[in-house]
What does this fold into?
Amino acid sequence: MKQQAFVHRNLPRLLLQAREAVMTHTRPSLREHGLSDQQWRVLRVLGEHANSIESADGADGVETGRVAREAFLLGPSLTGVLTRMERDGLIERSRCPQDARRTVVRATPVGLSKVAKLSEAIEAHYAWMESELGKQKLAQLYQLLDAVIQLETTPMNEAVEEME
It folds into this structure.
């Protein structure tokens, strides 16, 4: 039986290749600060919450389930990452004041300092990308990625209902 040839390029592989290409520029800075990719994703999430207007979440900490979702880490992996980060003084964990069954995480001053230092290098890389691609193309890339995420996270029945 002859297998049907693929018509479209392998989008998941292209997205992974793009991620790895971007991370090639970011990883050296992370390593200089003693961070893994996963630790950086956690610190970035915590840093964004600490700096956000909705800082009730950031000031008291961010629930670990939310950190896992926003940092794209599975629960068991997050537990190990958080244990190492707490040992290294980058984060603090505590019980959620509203629900003692839940744990919240916040970046320590040391962790927030790393976020501030790394954000400079990362923003410089994004500025370089913008100068190479052009502001419009980079904005278009962000819009297209947002559209793909929205499309792929909309349940099929909602999409069908919208078509009708």
Summary: The radius of gyration is 19 Å.
